[in-house]
Amino acid sequence: MDRLKVKVPAFGKLNLSLLVLHKRTDGFHELRTVFQTIALHDSLAIEFARARRTRIELESNVEIPGVNLVTRAAESVLAELGISASVRFALTKRIPMGGGLAGGSTDAAAVLLALPVLAGKPIPFARLQEMAAQLGSDVPIFLKGGAAVALGRGEELYALPDAAAVPVLLACSGIHVSTPEAFRALNRGAAELTSPNDPNRIKRFQLLVEALVCPDSAGSWMALCENDFEGAVFPQVPRLDTLRHSLIGHGARLARMSGSGSTMFGVFSGENARDRAMARLTKQQPNVQWVPTAFISRHEYRRVWRRALASARKQLRVSSEEFGWIV
Ligand code: C5P
Asked: Which pTM was predicted?
C-alpha cells in the first residue's frame, strides 16, 4: 500500500486559572484548572504505511531532550490497534519547550488523533482518553480542543462554551521551570493551600466557571483567574513577576503564568492593543520572545484538524460514525 502523508497541527494551551490542591495517594496533585487551547502550534508531518515490522522515525527542527512523547504515543496506538507499521514523523516545533504551554503533550495528542485515521482503524474515544492520560496529565485536553474545566490531575474534562478568538501575547523568557520541582516547591506550603486563611478559593473557582459558562459575563471572568504556581515560582524567579507587570503595564486585562511556567501570557481587549504592546515590549525587552497568538475555539480547532486529515479520509473512506469529530 502507498504511504499516506498528512501534516497536522498541534496547538498549545493556556491554564487561564490553576489551583493545586492536596497531594493524592498516587503521588499526583489534585487540580482545578481551566484550559484554553491557543492558535500557536507545532506542525507534525506524518508518513504512514502498514508494514511487517514496526519502525518509528522522528526528526525535529529542535533537539528534544528526554523521552519523546511522539514516539511513545505512536507505540501505544499501534499496540492498541494490534498492527505494525512504518511511521515517519517530521516535527516543526514552535511552542517553546518546558514553558507551561504543553508543547510535548500536544504533539503526543496529535499522534493519538491522527494515527488511527491513517491506519483506517478507530479507537473508541473513551479508550483514547485513557491512553492520553497515561502519556501525561496535559494530553487529554487536546483530544477535545477549546476551553474546558479540568479536575483530577487534569484529565477529567468538562467542555466550556466556545470563546471568541481573544488576542493573547506570550512572554517567553527561556527560563526553565521544572514541573515536578514546581510541585515540590508548592508542597512546602501545603498547609497554606488547605488553610482556613482562604476558605473562598474553591468558591472563586466555581464563580470563574460560572462566568465562563454564562456568555453575558463579558470579561468578568478575568478577575477570577489565578495560578497557585506563581506563589511558589515567583520568589525563586522574580523576573517572571516583572514580566507579568510588564504585560499589565502595557494594557493586558489579565496576565498570568501558564501551568508551572515559565511562559507568562497577557490577554488583550483587541488585536490592535495586543500588537501595540508587542511592539513596545519587543523594543524595551528584546531578550524576551514576545509571541502573538489568540484563543482557538473548539469549533475552529476541529475544523483545522478535519481539513488536515481530509485527503487521508477520502483515500481511506473512513466515516465520522466510527471516528467521531476528527473526520
Ligand atoms: O502527568 P505529567 O507527566 O505531566 O506530570 C509530570 C510531573 O508533575 C509528575 O511526575 C508529578 O511530579 C507532577 N504532577 C503532579 N500533579 C499533577 C500533574 C503533575 O504532582 N496533577
From this structure: 0.95
